[in-house]
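User: Can you predict the 3D structure for this chain?
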Amino acid sequence: MATRLATLSDREREVLDRILEGKPTRQIADELRISVKTVEFHRARIREKLAVASLAQLFRLFIPAVSDA
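Assistant: Here is the predicted structure, written as structure tokens:
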């Protein structure tokens, strides 16, 4: 996982951090002062680089599984 994270650009990492905070695309664009289209592009590149097909899979990478212990 660390290897895949290392492939993200600084901007992709900024977008990822905001995605994981639950922020919508429009808010991310406003905060980073970039267009919505650019955020969508970064989101697609993040999914590609981290090899996930959905936002749910992305969250699963960063939220530890809860065991039924």
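Residues 18 and 52 are 17 Å apart (CA to CA). The two ends are 25 Å apart (CA to CA).
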